[in-house]
Every structure is written in C-alpha cells, then in structure tokens.
# Entry
Amino acid sequence: MQQSFNPYEMAVQQFELAADKLGLSEDMRELLRKPKRELTVNFPVRMDDGHIQMVTGYRVQHNVTRGPAKGGIRYTPEVTLDEVKALAMWMTWKCAVVGIPYGGAKGGVICDPKHMTSAELERLTRRFATEISIIIGPHSDIPAPDVNTNAQVMAWIMDTYSMDQGYSVPAVVTGKPLSIGGSEGRNDATATGVLFVTRSAAKRMEFLLQGARVSIQGFGNAGGVAARLFHNEGCKIVAVSDTSGGIYNEDGFDPAVLLRHKAEHGTLSSYSNAQHMSIHDVLEVPCDILIPAATEGVITEENADRIQARIVAEAANGPTTPEADVILFNKGCVVIPDILANAGGVTVSYFEWVQDLQSFFWDNEEITHRLEVIMNRAFDAVAEKADEYHCDMRLGANMLAIARVAESTQVRGIYP
Ligand code: NAD
# Structure
C-alpha cells in the first residue's frame, strides 16, 4: 500500500465523481459526504499474563436514511478511523446498490489477533461490544464479520449484548453460528455473490468461465471461499496469496489442498508445488479474472498498467484507487466494483437479520436463489447505467446508489 494512501479521501473522491455526474447540490453533497456518527473507544483488556493492555476501537455510522446501519468489524494492527469512515461510506452505497433497507456502518479494533489467545480475544470482544453497545442494536446498527473476525466473534458480541438486555437478541449481529440464529449460506455469501456478478460480466464479454485463469489476493472468508467456488465453476486457480506471500502455478491449484495446507501450517507461502512471489505480484500474473480479496489501495497508478486480467472482481473493499480505475478502463479491463461485487455478504446478512426478527428460517436453496436474483438485478442495473453514461461500472454503481440515498434523504426532509 502507498505511504500516503488514505481510504477516506479515496472514498470521498469516488463520491465527488458520481455527485458531479448526477449534478447533486452542494447541500446534499455535504450531507452525504460526512459520517453521521463516529465513536472512538479506549478500553482496558486483561491479558493472560495478568497485565492490562489499553485498546482502541471504532464504530462509525455513515448514513441511516434508508434503514439501520450495517457493516462489519475488523481486527487489525493498522486500522485507523479514516479507514473505518471509508468502509462505512462504502457500506451505505453497497446496501443502496443492491436495494436492501440499510444504511452503512463499519467498526475496527487496533489489535493483532494472530498474537492473542482465544481467551484474550473473547475478553477484548466482550469489552468492545459493551463499549459500542450505546449505538449498536437490532434496529439501529448491526455488526458482522470482516477481516480477522468470524462467527465466534459474532457469537461473543451477541451474547454480551443479550446479557445486558436480559434476553437473547440474535438480530443484533449477523454472520453468527447457525446454532444461535445464523443463516444458511452466510459463510459462502460474499464469494457466491462475486461468482454471480463475474458470471454476468463474462457473459456480456462473451467469454466462458470454464477454463478461465483466476488469480486471488487474500485467502480468507472472501478469497478462500472464492477459490473453491470458481474452481467448482471450472476455472483454473493459477495464483493465490495471503499475508505470508503469493504462490503461482500455471497448471492451476486445487483449492481444497491449499485450504488444508493453510489450516495445517498457517500460511500459503510454505506450500511447495508452486512458484513463490510477493503478496502484490499475484495481481500482475497472466490471468483472465483477478480477485483482490484482502485490503484497500492495492491496485494503484503504479501497477494498474501491468494488470493482465480482463475482469477485476473486487471481493475486497476499496482495492482500486481512482487513478488506477482510469488506467484499467482505458485498456478495456472491466472492474466490477466492490460495492456491487462483494454485496453478497451484506445481502445474506440481511436475510439472516430478517430470519432472526421473524424467528422463521429458510433453507440454503431459498437463500441462494434469493441472492442470485438480487445480485443479477443489481449487476444489470449498474451495467445499464455504465453503458448509458459511457463510464466504468464503479461510477455507474456509485451514481445508482448515491441517487437512491439522495432521494430517500429528499423525501424524508430535514429534521426539525
Ligand atoms: P479474512 O480475515 O477472512 O481474510 C483476509 C485475507 O487477506 C487473509 O488471507 C490475509 O492473509 C490476507 N491479507 C490481509 N492483509 C493482506 C495484505 N496486506 N496483503 C495481502 N493479503 C492480505 O477477511 P475477509 O472477511 O475475507 O475480508 C477480505 C476483504 O473482503 C476485506 O476487504 C473485507 O472488507 C472484504 N469483504 C468481506 C466480506 C465478508 O463477508 N467477510 C464481505 C464483503 C467484503
């Protein structure tokens, strides 16, 4: 990532491009640009050796005009308030682009889960949940997993919130284990959505996914599952990476073997039958489809020209800078933007929340069918917008989403 990279500045830059094209008034821009609430909390966590560590966390609600705020929580040593603000804004547009009744939020805690025990993580999570309980709730703001958080972390948040209320509140988080009100299909949802939109893009570009070469940066919930699903679709997974580095094999990997290797050894870079490369080199290998599934700001004006893929399907949030967008568009590479490509995760989170509120659960077939309908509809609407304005799909998606939020704001009016 570039030294000067600021995700919030990038999110605002993307917003302004769409606002210009929409001819949005300065008043409306000012209203939509700023996050509604930014909560920073500093709290103590007792570590296993008995010492107390002060930890900083954030929860930002960008906009709640169309419904409760929704967005994941990430645990990384590098997370900043500006990163969380950007991710919260992208969540607002993401929920609007797929037409689900949520606003956008995001959370982050500065910590390194790789160097913490499960007991330490649980204490950190329960205390953070308590600290942000003043703004989260099933009708106000519903967290979910993101980088380095998972179903177990969501279970601890759900339990902590429920203890405070005095009864179980499954709908306060999504991405929970099935046994406490989680949804069928949530684990695979983000990658399933990426597959659906990539199918649509490939169809429009008249090439077959069968045999297509795929490179994936990041091998967690989004990237690891995408490797499995694209492999099942008949694609060849030629490169993957995690924080330990990248591996490449032009004959393709079996994702099941890689997932097993990662589970046993903790890293991909120790896998033998492959050419080894840096984390970022996997972006530039010969491939048809590139899936960035790790972090922000990795496709920049520095490397965009060297990207060989025909489709970039953004499983990660914010992987491509606006300068790189221009370079990719000019060379005919189709970027399926994050707010569309990875919206399968929040869409099935929405299904989970609906099921929790009505205490009535759907089977996997129903979830997948409903997800496919929503993703295909959103893809077609974005592609149509991009065609109409002769622009890339990011601008098309942002225009569609921002217009929807602006309309809701207009019709609700300004209180008081
Ligand atoms: P995860 O923690 O499950 O996996 C992250 C993966 O990326 C890991 O393999 C890690 O080794 C790798 N990684 C982390 N930092 C990296 C770096 N600097 N360079 C290369 N690899 C790196 O996280 P996830 O849930 O899969 O999230 C990945 C991305 O997808 C994020 O941008 C997240 O916001 C986005 N996303 C996730 C979901 C979801 O449902 N989990 C939904 C929408 C979007």
User: Anything to note?
Assistant: The longest strand covers residues 52-63.
